[in-house]
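Need fresh eyes. Consider my entry:
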Amino acid sequence: MPPSRSFEVSNFRHRRAPNWRSRSVSDRTAIPRGRDRELRSYFGAKKCVVTDFSPATWHHLDDDPQNHVLGNLVPLEGCLNDSLGKAALESRKGGRPLLDARLTPEALATRAMSHYLEWRIAPAYGCARLAVFVAREYCRRTASEVLEFASNAFWYARHRLNYDLLEDIVTRDILPVVSARSVLRPSAITAALHELCTLLHECGDHNYAHEAYETLDVLATSLRRSTEDPFRYAGIVRRQATMLLADSGLTSEVLTLIEESQSAAASNEAVQLGGQLAKAWGHLHATTPNKAAEFVEHSYRKYIPVILPGGEVVPKGVTLGMVAELSFHYCINVITTRPHGWKRKLEHGIGSARALYSLGGHRVPEILPGFWSLDEARTIESRIGLRIRRSQLPDSLKRKVASAIRSLASLTRGKPGTVTSGINLGHK
């Protein structure tokens, strides 16, 4: 018989030091100018992540008015900020606060996705991160629910990369759950493992990512297959395909995984485009750029957004990150295959890539060796105006990600502290 919700929550809630709980509004300190600039740079404007009202106020997620770290602040309309302040007071008294309907975890998660589909990734992160704290501190949701909300926040933060935010999510939202030995739903474990493993792979720690994905594959295969989220399952399978591709090239196994990913969510355009991009990388890896161009040309014509005079970008039913990567692929294919009118096409691709990567705060994808000359790669890099090569994952974040992966794998086996694949990520 599964534990009750109250039991599950009591095993994971991150108990903070009690001294700040009694602080009042008069204890509030000014946010340093440097931090305010950093926040405005990330969010783009001091606009409420829920209502788009401007100017908003900076809401402290943990209700500590003196904790001004980047990961503890999101812009929120004054009335919603006040509503959460009242909820915090009620929560401290042991009650269950009545929340504004726009501030329930589910409403915030829905709003986050609507932002993301409109290619507004920073406010999507803000809503998703707020959902984590509301679920845990005010609604007292189960450990599984909190972990799933945290995984969603991690997903958005990964798509508008900021290592400080990612480390804050792991430190305050994920590790307290998985370290408390709570009973977790398979879907919650799968979501967290997928996000953590993907970060390792995307940030260049390929060996570590392989070890971590072995854990996901060996210990959680049944969990992946039983997940209720086909988009998540498709992402897991596609990630496995790209890692195998980097190791072995475009093999029949890689193609089978890509097809499985696409069939898992056949009606999702983002999944279908992701599969096309994976195939394009595969043919580039196999040094068959003309074959890669077949996948890219059609998708580019179908999905490339219209760049309006004011600089706005019109979405075409797929995510910003994928269309940005598609534009980058287009540049690669043009410069390698040199089709008729290639200079004009390259200018168009570079313009699209520059606008899209800048809009989303994305990094340009890592170049795999052997596709074109170094001079050509540097030409694309300089023309887009963004760095192609990625910075390494900070050691502190890597260690915490490794700790979370080990704990999740251990929970899956049901044997505290044991993992058959022997992950030693982040250890010197």
Observations:
- The CA atoms of residues 52 and 346 lie 36 Å apart.
- The first strand starts at residue 57 and ends at 60.
- The longest helix spans residues 206-226.
